[in-house]
Amino acid sequence: MIQQFLRPLLWVRPLRCMLDERLDVRVRGLLPGVRVTLHALLHTEDGDFWEGFGHYISDDLGTVTVCKDASLGGSYDGVKPMGLLWSMKPIPGSRTGLRLRKKDVQAQSDVHISVYKDHLTHGFQEKAPIASVVAQRWYMAPGVQRVDVTDKGLKGTLFIPPGPGPFPAVLDLWGGGGGLVEYRSALLASRGYVSLSLEYSAETDAGGKPRHVEIDYFEAAITVLRQHPQVSPERLAIVGLSYGAFLTMYMAAYSSVIKPRCIVCISGSHAIPVSGSLVDISGLVKRLTKKPHYDKEQRQIWRAPLLPIPDDPLNKVEVDRIKCPILLIVGEDDQNCPASESADDMKQMMERAGNSHLLTVLTYPGAGHLIEPPYTPHCQASNFMLAETRTKVMVLWGGQTEAHSQAQEDSWHKILAFLEQHLYSNTSD
């Protein structure tokens, strides 16, 4: 047995790279036919530990090559080059309802990758690995600037690529969970876009005054973007997820100021009711939780109260008014939003208006609601804070881990290609 692990070498390249880049992981120096476990461990900013692991058998040359060899078990199986990362789950004994979200995008995420003897399923912390390395994963490329934005009552963060510009720009909108979420914007800036991550669902504005958000708040954000000296003002897009996708459609349809060159809508619906202020997250959540639907594990399912999609055009965004290209990303197992039904209705609306050429729909079987940047762990359910009562509920987002992770990788590359096509081209559709 000692002979089997005489001089093992764990080879990981690149050791320092962007979050949306693949890793090449190999083990060398084993004897043929040796059973080993590859293990990845991440210690988050919240103090939690997440892990992913795969079971391998060395080949005739005494090597394991993750991008070619099949995992025989663990948190994933089959030939999955990035399975160590996207299959990560909180380690046994962790707090319930966790969701992995990067807070400090200026700091790297250190992933500890190790090799252990035999095929293990638990107790990694109590055993000594036979080889180990640390891979750094970054959200911000070297030279990207991060700037706090408080102009015009806004609360946001601007990310600027290195170089003189001018660059295309993206307004980045997350969902109704609140908070200033920066990691997608940091990645977009690392790929050549000035990106503004905007907080819109907080109870107060940047000056501490009560916030009642109307469309002019988002128009102010667009103005800030367009007036920035490193932004090409006519090359602007909006990317939104969940409620942010609804807002994206709403602005593209009705604002005479915003007029994006293209929009990306992830896991959203055009049929969310609006009454009073445009951003009434507490009112929407109150409706969704008034008569909650539950799965067998008592996790709340929020898609049902938004069905059926209304026939009355006054009860949904008139997406047929949108005159720019739309990329719609849909997870067919979305348990939080009726994204599939909304996509079908949007297709019909665009076809009737003769605008179907503007709509591109990416549909992913087995994907859930939280379609995020690639190689990040799939979150099937997590805690959600109800603002009015300050109580936590467990919300089901949906998705199966492998299918969802494939959707994250594929959709991210297609988002980047879509933005490049419409923001870097000399003409607009």
UniProtKB/TrEMBL annotation:
Gene3D superfamilies in the cross-refs: Acyl-CoA thioester hydrolase/BAAT N-terminal domain, alpha/beta hydrolase
Active site (record annotation): 242, 334, 369
Q: Where is the Acyl-CoA thioester hydrolase/bile acid-CoA amino acid N-acetyltransferase domain?
A: 20-150
GO MF annotation, one: fatty acyl-CoA hydrolase activity
Instruction: Extract one GO BP annotation from the record.
Output: acyl-CoA metabolic process
One Pfam family this chain carries? BAAT_C
Looking at the record, the residues that make up the BAAT/Acyl-CoA thioester hydrolase C-terminal domain are: 213-424
Indicate the family of this protein.
Answer: Belongs to the C/M/P thioester hydrolase family.
Specify the protein name: Acyl-coenzyme A thioesterase 4-like
Which species?
Pangasianodon hypophthalmus (Striped catfish)
